[in-house]
Write a structure and sequence with these properties.
about 200 residues; mainly alpha; 10 helices; about 65% helix
C-alpha cells in the first residue's frame, strides 16, 4: 500500500498550519493518523473525501496548541472551531466547513457510524490506533513499518499524556479527562506501534 497525500491548496496549507502550531511529535502523529485512516478506508471499502479527511487529520489536535486552547471547551471542540475558520479562509462552503468541524469533534467519540460519517469514522479509528493501539492489526504490517519510518513517534507518549493531563486538570468533564481516568497512560505504553 502506498501513502499518497491529496493535492490542492487546502491540504498544503493545513499541513503548514499543523507544522507551525504542533511539535514534531504531534505533527508526525497527524501524518500517521491520515496514513492509518486511508489504510482503514481501503480495508473497510469506504468511499471518503480525501481532502476533507487530510485537513481534519492535520488539524484534529490543534485545540491542544496553547494558541488555540480553550479554557472552557474540550480541545476537540476548540479544534473544530479553529478548523471551521481555516476552511472559511480556504473558501469552503459553509456545509463543508461544518462537516470538517464535526469530523474533528467526533474523533474523540468511542464509535462513529461509517455509513453516516465515513471521514469521522476513519479519523476516530486512526487516532485511536495511533494513540492507544486500538485496531492496529487492521493496518498492513509493511505499510505500518513504512509510515513509522517516515513519521517516527518521537516523544508522542510523554507529550500527549502531558497535554491530556493538563486538559483533564482544567476541564474535568472533558473527553481528555475521561481518557486519563480510563488509564490512557497504560494503553499508550502497551500500543504495539511503540514497539515497532
Amino acid at each position: 500500500m502506498e501513502l499518497s497525500l491529496p493535492e490542492g491548496p487546502a491540504g498544503t496549507t493545513a499541513a503548514e498550519v499543523a507544522a507551525a502550531y504542533s511539535s514534531p511529535s504531534l505533527l508526525n502523529h497527524s501524518m500517521r493518523v491520515y496514513a492509518w485512516a486511508t489504510a482503514l478506508g481501503e480495508a473497510h471499502q469506504l468511499d471518503f473525501d480525501a481532502e476533507l479527511l487530510f485537513v481534519a487529520a492535520m488539524l484534529h489536535d490543534v485545540g491542544l496548541a496553547p494558541e488555540f486552547d480553550s479554557h472552557t471547551k474540550p480541545f476537540e471542540v476548540a479544534g473544530g472551531h479553529v478548523a471551521w475558520v481555516f476552511a472559511a479562509g480556504a473558501g469552503w462552503p459553509a456545509a463543508r466547513r461544518d462537516r470538517l468541524a464535526e469530523v474533528i469533534v467526533r474523533h474523540m467519540w468511542a464509535e462513529v457510524d461509517p455509513a453516516e460519517d465515513p471521514e469521522g469514522f476513519l479519523l476516530s479509528r486512526a487516532a485511536a490506533a495511533d494513540i492507544a493501539g486500538r485496531g492496529v492489526t487492521e493496518l498492513p504490517e509493511g505499510f505500518r513499518a513504512d509510515v513509522l519510518a517516515r513519521y517516527p513517534r518521537l516523544d508522542l507518549v510523554g507529550e500527549f499524556l502531558r497535554c491530556f493531563r493538563d486538559q483533564a486538570d482544567r476541564k474535568p468533564d472533558s473527553s481528555a479527562a475521561a481518557a486519563i481516568r480510563n488509564d490512557l497512560a497504560t494503553r499508550m505504553a502497551a500500543n504495539p506501534l511503540e514497539r515497532s
